[in-house]
Amino acid sequence: MKIVVTGASGYVGQNIVPILRDQCDKLILVGRSPDKLRKIFPDLVCCTLEELPSVAHGFDRLVHLAVLNNNVEGTEAEFYRVNAELTYQTARVAEACEIKKFYSISSVHVLDELNQSLYATSKRAAVELLKDLESIEIINIYLPFVRGAEWNGKLAFLSNLPSFVVKPVESVLLALKPSAKMERIADFILQPQSDQNFVILSEGQTQNLAYRTIKRGLDLLFAVAVIGLLWWALLIIWVLVRFGSQGPGIFAQERVGRYGKTFTCYKFRTMQQGTVQAGTHEVSQASVTPIGRFLRGTKLDELPQVWNILKNEISLIGPRPGLPVQKDLFAARQVWGVFDVKPGISGLAQVNNIDMSDPEKLARWDARYVALQSLLLDIQIVVSTIRGGGQGDKVFQS
């Protein structure tokens, strides 16, 4: 494996280069000041971008870390020149060198279209420019909070604490925001094959005891609060549904949950009895009952799922569970690793108005949630749901 790295003098570069150096045959660092790079990595070949064709022809990877971050003052033109134009120029040089893969590294903040910072907008512009390149494989990697062997910045003090203190504190801190280890980034770059051109690299939260404990506690608190405080409202809704149209007040339906296993999901019935078992987008608007339209718009039809929460089959926040008959969605979610987490009553895709009519798109958004899962993101989704985000899945307009 022969690799080129730009921007190696930054935090990520200084931490990832030693890992790559130990695992590849040749490593070349590129920067505006090769002498500065040589002071940090005296044992490696360092050059400018203009010199690269003479030393890196036929290499396997170019990892582009050179960037102008939000913590640097600069004009819109300067951010565009570095983050967009320089990225494209570097990729063109890599293409001319017949380098096989170009890894463009960005922060996950770039994925938020509402983020209009100079960094985010210029990085999104780079993605569009790179689409013009055809003879080199472009992989856009998005990183959350990145951590090396030692804590840095405001959290550097943690490195001096005893391990029995650091471990629980670290677990809680990492539950708040998604993170990625340097080793994970390096492993992805070094892997022989990758058919993904859009990747969010993170550790996830499946192994974080603090996140799992807090999330489960909040789920139970929500379920108990609904049952204890709103039992009268649940009863009224049941009566309205039961006598508003023919059929039961509670609708039980098989759904696909964690690890691809099915479970019985409970909701207030919002459709006419006998409606076909299919994705909501495949069901006619005429099938929705009058009270059902109100319940779906306000998401009150989801409240009986507190029973599923108590049974630990579902969470308050997570990918919405699909039906067993939705084979395309099941397959796409398997590919993207969505079944690694519990489904939820509301989720990231839903508050962004992504429904089940496009299984692949939905699975990608669900995978984004799995990668970025954190307590702060869950709270944001709850707030968005309360404010009206994702008001019911769209039904077929007949």
List keywords for this structure.
398 residues; alpha/beta; Rossmann fold; seven-stranded parallel sheet; two-stranded parallel sheet; 13 helices
Short account of what is shown:
By secondary structure, the chain is an alpha/beta fold. The protein contains 13 helices and 13 strands.
Describe this structure in words.
The chain is of the alpha/beta class and 398 residues long. The protein has 2 domains: 2-150 and 177-200, NAD(P)-binding Rossmann-like Domain (Rossmann fold); 209-386, no CATH class. The chain is built from 13 helices and 13 strands. The chain has a 7-stranded parallel beta sheet with strand order 3-2-1-4-5-6-9, sandwiched between helices. The protein has a two-stranded parallel ribbon with strand order 7-8. Strand 1, helix 1 and strand 2 (26-30) form a beta-alpha-beta unit. Helix 1 (11-23) crosses helix 6 (182-190), helix 3 packs parallel to helix 4 (118-130) and helix 10 (327-336) packs parallel to helix 12. It is elongated, with a radius of gyration of 25 Å.
